[in-house]
């Protein structure tokens, strides 16, 4: 009884007195991430990237939503959805989570339709990245695209992600996309017979890199 009266007199709540139910923790949710951008789209996969969310303490993870349901939690600002159905429309959005468990509003949705799946299944593809020369603040690189399959292909796409601060400047023998680097064949070099190869090159801005994780698709 004495403890209850003393708490009432001093104006200290029981929660404050015994440490329960305090409200000093982080309750600020991160901002919504940027709308996802679709990179390479196949019959069964979609590569997504988005701009980072901001938070008063720090974003620790991103939840990827497909048609409104969470399908993955990642720490990076990119994700490749797999196991999709050919010729099907999906809507992807992203929300951010911080260390305290606060969750942002979802980003704007991105609607993507997977391809028909009728591509050339006998065509394979490899891409080899090589830095040719470098200088302060820039470099020149070349990528060789090779058909490793048993049938001819008519179009290719190459994807990779540079470290922060490195970008593609001028490009030849290809058409580049952003924000992750996506290069598609030019009109004159898309067709590759089995075993054949072609190259494209570019001048990069930023620090040179001797290699980059790179993927290739041929149809």
TrEMBL record:
UniProt GO BP: polysaccharide catabolic process
Domain called Fibronectin type-III: residue spans: 32-117
Annotated keywords: Carbohydrate metabolism, Glycosidase, Hydrolase, Polysaccharide degradation
Domain spans labelled CBM2: 118-219
Cited InterPro entries: CBD2 (IPR001919), CBM2/CBM3_carb-bd_dom_sf (IPR008965), CBM2_carb-bd_dom_sf (IPR012291), FN3_dom (IPR003961), FN3_sf (IPR036116), Ig-like_fold (IPR013783)
Domain of life: Bacteria
Gene3D superfamilies: 2.60.40.290, Immunoglobulins (2.60.40.10)
Record-level Gene Ontology MF annotations: hydrolase activity, hydrolyzing O-glycosyl compounds; polysaccharide binding
Record protein name field: Fibronectin type III domain protein
Annotated organism of origin: Actinoplanes italicus
Lineage of the organism: Bacteria, Bacillati, Actinomycetota, Actinomycetes, Micromonosporales
């Amino acid at each position: 009884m004495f403890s209850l009266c003393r708490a009432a007199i001093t104006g200290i709540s029981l929660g404050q007195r015994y440490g329960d139910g305090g409200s000093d923790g982080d309750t600020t949710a991160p901002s919504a991430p940027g709308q996802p951008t679709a990179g390479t789209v196949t019959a069964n996969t979609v590569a997504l990237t988005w701009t980072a969310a901001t938070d008063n303490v720090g974003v620790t993870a991103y939840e990827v939503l497909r048609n409104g349901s969470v399908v993955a939690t990642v720490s990076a600002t990119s994700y490749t959805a797999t196991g999709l159905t050919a010729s099907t429309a999906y809507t992807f959005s992203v929300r951010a989570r911080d260390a305290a468990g606060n969750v942002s509003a979802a980003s704007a949705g991105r609607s993507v339709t997977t391809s028909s799946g009728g591509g050339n299944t006998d065509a394979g593809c490899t891409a080899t990245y090589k830095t040719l020369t470098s200088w302060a603040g820039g470099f020149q690189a070349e990528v060789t695209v090779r058909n490793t399959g048993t049938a001819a292909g008519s179009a290719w796409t190459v994807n990779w992600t540079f470290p922060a601060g490195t970008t593609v400047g001028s490009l030849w023998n290809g058409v580049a996309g952003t924000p992750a680097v996506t290069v598609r064949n030019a009109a004159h070099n898309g067709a590759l017979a089995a075993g054949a190869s072609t190259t494209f090159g570019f001048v990069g801005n930023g620090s040179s890199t001797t290699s980059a994780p790179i993927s290739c698709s041929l149809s």
